[in-house]
Amino acid sequence: MDSKYLLPIKENLDRFIGNDFPINEIKKSVSDAKIEKYSPNEYFICAGETNRKIGFVIKGLFRVFHTDMEGNEYTKNFRSTGHFMSSMAALLLTAPSRLNIQALEYSEVVCINYDRILQLADQSFLWQYLLRKSAEADFLEKEQRESDLLYYSAQDRYLNFLEKHPDWEERIRQRFIASYLGMTPETLSRIRGKPAPRN
Amino acid sequence: MDSKYLLPIKENLDRFIGNDFPINEIKKSVSDAKIEKYSPNEYFICAGETNRKIGFVIKGLFRVFHTDMEGNEYTKNFRSTGHFMSSMAALLLTAPSRLNIQALEYSEVVCINYDRILQLADQSFLWQYLLRKSAEADFLEKEQRESDLLYYSAQDRYLNFLEKHPDWEERIRQRFIASYLGMTPETLSRIRGKPAPRN
User: Which positions 85-104 of B are in contact with A (Cβ < 8 Å)?
Assistant: First the structure.
């Protein structure tokens, strides 16, 4: 794999473990990785599908969502350049994915084999540590979102979102943002119509 | 610590790692642990509090819940004999707890110092592996619950709950069960009034 893809992966992993993640270890994990290109609306993962892949977004933006029995969609999160994405529960349970991951714009992804990572972790304290940190981060992301829905008003959630991801509002459809923030598109429109000062 | 407490902890950890967890390692982790007793309604952890403890329930039952700004309570889960409990997000972030853990009945807990576990994990592949498996299980529990709320009807969620925890219905107040299952107490009453056959 072209070494230009290694550096952004290393940057992400360094942040995860709060230390230098050796580039040689990263090379081992991506020895059979592939670069995949996605047009807008193409799926990286479809609900019902069983696969063993983790994506690292080199360029672009994806939406992670559930669809319930009535066909209603629930946006769980978004994944952009420099971040990993997968159907983690499906990987951990070796089960079909319950969620969908769909490109919102033209995107490029390093597609890594999760079983390759598991093999590395079998023998390595460092990879074991990375998988721990990664699972803790996944847990925290969900926990934080759950309690944000309880502790922050719809308006504050929207303002936090803007602050964290200033460019996403232009790149993501209103109804996906509303779904992600746990409000109706009408509530989001109302809030956007009258942005209140933060203080 | 009395060795009678070690065996149930070992049973839990064996299950987590899917293998034999050496009793000597467990002894290291509980060298400064304390046995604590809780009367009904007493708190193991209060929201706003900062602490570094993990509880292992030797006997009894606890409710884990959030309280929102209006004072409404949201039951996240329950922890019973043979299981660990903590405010994991607070431990990971070294921050005040956002959740409460309250005894529902007379309970006994082995109170373990999380920082002791982190020290052990610094030097041990096995403890690193356990922390990874534990974080993955925490993540899966949340993920599963989130998607159960989307994919199962209120009635199916209640029947799954009964099947998984046949004794909890007698031990837990209706309104806590309703909150945990994501329905109003009225919906739960209605469902309980006419239990439908599963097939």
Answer: 88-89, 92-93, 98-99
Q: Is residue A151 part of a domain?
A: no
Count up the domains in chain A and report the number: 1
Residue B192 domain-assigned?
no
> How crowded is residue B153: how many other Cβ atoms within 10 Å of its Cβ?
11
Give the tens place of pLDDT for each residue, A121-139: 999 999 999 999 999 999 9
Residue A85 domain-assigned (yes or no): yes
Parent domain of B59: 3-123
Which pairing describes strands A100-103 and B100-103: parallel, antiparallel, or unpaired? Answer: unpaired
Helix (H) or strand (E) holding B184: none
Amino acid type, A18: G
**A–B CB contacts, 8 A cutoff, strictly below:** 74
Does residue B140 form part of some domain? no
In this predicted structure, the answer to whether residue B197 has a pLDDT above a threshold of 50 is no
Length of chain A: 199
Pick from A15-24, A94-103, B102-111: least confident: A15-24
* Per-residue pLDDT tens digits for B131-187: 999 999 999 999 988 888 888 899 999 999 999 999 999 999 999 999 999 899 999
